[in-house]
């Protein structure tokens, strides 16, 4: 429901604040309920506006969630670069440990990575997906540079490691964080928990193996 006393934003400052409020509402809902459960109606209710008001700022829920994914890429790349700054000769274990730990600290971003390729990129305008791809590419470049400076990997190998981390995070995060129904099934029938993924150690092990293979080439 719209909050009592709600007023339409007219000034540029108020419009910017309203847009930020809607993004924060989406962020809070996605963190609480998962990306899949976020709707425009829920965003509007959480922000205290009518759902029609949301469309004055964002064309769709996919655009809002893609904004969050873009923020996630930038935030993750900055965190990794900061942790690897002024370090050198890192082992594959140290390097992949940093990548995985910084991802695990960002559960919303991990959840978003699944939905980016499945739906979010497919349901926005050309201009919006182009902006997102450039932002994601810039983040990958930052990660690549930080990794190649801090380890024995060259830029090409570092980029392959980053791409693998992104590609593996999406399914492993979902498998390691099953919904309520699946969690109940796995608890009651352990035999059908076919993979039994624990996100951090599984991703760390796979990336370390890849890193080790890259350094041997």
Quick tags:
single chain, 217 residues, mainly alpha, TetR family transcriptional regulator, HTH_TetR, DNA-binding, Homeodomain-like_sf, TetR_C_34
Q: Write the H/E string, N to C.
A: HHHHHHHHHH
Specify the helix fraction band.
Answer: over 70%
How large a portion of the residues is in β-strands, by DSSP E? Answer: under 5%
- Report mean pLDDT, rounded to a whole number: 91
Biggest sheet architecture: none
Radius of gyration: 20 Å
Structural class: mainly alpha
Unreliable runs: 1-6
**Shape category:** globular
**Distance N to C terminus:** 59 Å
Q: Kindly state the number of beta strands.
A: 0
Domain HTH tetR-type: 16-76
Pfam families: TetR_C_34, TetR_N
Protein name: TetR family transcriptional regulator
Organism: Streptomyces kaempferi
Describe what this molecule looks like in 3D:
It is built from ten helices and no strands. It is mainly alpha-helical. The N and C termini lie far apart (59 Å).
How is this structure best summarized?
The chain is mostly helical and 217 residues long. The protein contains ten helices and no strands.
List the helices and strands and how they pair.
Elements: H1 12-33, H2 40-47, H3 51-54, H4 61-84, H5 92-104, H6 107-118, H7 126-150, H8 155-176, H9 180-188, H10 199-216
């Amino acid at each position: 429901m719209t909050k009592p006393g709600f007023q339409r934003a007219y000034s540029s400052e108020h419009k910017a604040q309203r847009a930020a409020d809607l993004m924060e509402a989406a962020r809070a809902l996605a963190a609480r309920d998962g990306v899949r459960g976020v709707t425009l109606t829920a965003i509007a209710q959480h922000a205290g506006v009518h759902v029609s008001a949301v469309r004055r700022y964002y064309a769709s829920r996919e655009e809002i969630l893609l904004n969050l994914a873009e923020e996630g890429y930038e935030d993750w790349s900055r965190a990794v670069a900061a942790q690897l700054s002024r370090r050198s000769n890192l082992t594959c274990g140290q390097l992949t440990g940093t990548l995985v730990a910084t991802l695990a600290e960002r559960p919303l971003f991990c959840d978003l990575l699944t939905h980016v390729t499945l739906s979010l990129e497919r349901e926005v305008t050309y201009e919006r997906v182009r902006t997102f791809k450039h932002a994601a590419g810039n983040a990958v470049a930052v990660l690549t540079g930080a990794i190649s400076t801090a380890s024995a990997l060259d830029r090409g190998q570092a980029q392959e490691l980053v791409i693998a981390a992104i590609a593996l995070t999406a399914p492993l995060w979902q498998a390691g964080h099953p919904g309520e129904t699946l969690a109940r099934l796995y608890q009651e029938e352990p035999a059908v928990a076919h993979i039994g993924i624990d996100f951090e150690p599984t991703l760390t092990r796979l990336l370390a193996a890849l890193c080790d293979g890259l350094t041997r080439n």
